[in-house]
Design goal:
Elements lengths: L29 H8 L8 E5 L6 H12 L2 E3 L18 E3 L9 H13 L4 E5 L11 H8 L2 E4 L5 H14 L6 H8 L6 H18 L5 H7 L1
Parallel strand pairs: 1-4, 1-5, 2-3, 3-4
Helix pairs in contact: 1-2, 5-7
Length: about 220
C-alpha cells in the first residue's frame, strides 16, 4: 500500500522476532549469548545479565525462556514466600530488575527457593546489583555471589544488522547508501537504532515518502 502525503499514522504493534535464530551475534554479545544457550550448564544458579537499553537483554531472556520453559516473574510483583512452592523446580526469569521499587524480602526468598530446588534464575538489569540501594545485607550478599554477564556497546556491524532487522520487522526496506549515511551520524547504541527506525517509519508514512537520505537527515 502506498503512502499519501499528510496521511495519519497509527501506533500499531510491530511484531519483532525474538527467537534464537533471529538473534544477531557480534563481539558485543557473543559471550552473553553463549552463556545463555549453555543452560543448564551455568556456572551459578543465578545469573545477572546487565546492559544498556536496547542491548538485547529481553531477546536473550526470551531465548532462555523458549529453551528452558522458564517462568517469567514481574519485578514489581514477586510471589509471596508462601506462594513459591507452586513454581516447583522450574527455572525463573526476572526482567528489568530494579527498574521500579524491588521487594527485597520477596527477592531474597526467591533466591532461597532457587537454591533449595536446584533451579536457576536469570535476572536482567540496566545496572549491577552492587549499585542498587539495597537495605537487606543478606540479599546484597546473595546477589553479589551471582554470576555477572555483560552486554557491551555494539559495533558497526551489529548496529547495521539490527537496523536492517527492525526495518524488516516493519516490512520496510532501506537502500544501503541511506543505511550507511545513518550509521556514520547516529548515536552509537541499539536503543538509538530503535528510535531512528520508529521515527523514520512514522515520518515516511506521514509524508508519503520513501526512506531517503533527505528523510534520514531530517530525523537525525
Amino acid at each position: 500500500m502506498s503512502h499519501t502525503a499528510g496521511q495519519m499514522s497509527f501506533d500499531l504493534p510491530i511484531a519483532s522476532a525474538m527467537t534464537r535464530e533471529d538473534f544477531i551475534l557480534d563481539d558485543a554479545n557473543q559471550k552473553a549469548f553463549d552463556m545463555i544457550v549453555s543452560w543448564p550448564d551455568w556456572p551459578s544458579d543465578v545469573i545477572v545479565l546487565a546492559g544498556p537499553v536496547g542491548s538485547g537483554k529481553s531477546h536473550l531472556a526470551a531465548i532462555h525462556g523458549q529453551q528452558s520453559g522458564a517462568t517469567h516473574l514481574n519485578n514489581n510483583d514477586l510471589p509471596k514466600p508462601e506462594d513459591l512452592p507452586v513454581l516447583g523446580s522450574t527455572p525463573v526469569i526476572v526482567e528489568d530488575a530494579y527498574a521500579v521499587q524491588l521487594d527485597e524480602t520477596r527477592m531474597f526468598h526467591l533466591l532461597n527457593h532457587i537454591r533449595e530446588r536446584a533451579s536457576t534464575l536469570l535476572i536482567t538489569s540496566r545496572s549491577w546489583p552492587d549499585s542498587w540501594p539495597l537495605t537487606l545485607p543478606d540479599l546484597r550478599s546473595r546477589l553479589r555471589a551471582a554470576h555477572p554477564l555483560e552486554l557491551n556497546e555494539p559495533g558497526d556491524q551489529l548496529l547495521r544488522q539490527v537496523m536492517v532487522k527492525l526495518f524488516a520487522d516493519r516490512q520496510l526496506t532501506i537502500e544501503p547508501r541511506v543505511l550507511e549515511y545513518i550509521l556514520v551520524r547516529m548515536e552509537r547504541s541499539l536503543s538509538a537504532v530503535g528510535r531512528l527506525v520508529n521515527d523514520l517509519d512514522r515520518l515516511s508514512l506521514e509524508q508519503g515518502r520513501p526512506i531517503t537520505r533527505q528523510l534520514a537527515a531530517a530525523v537525525l
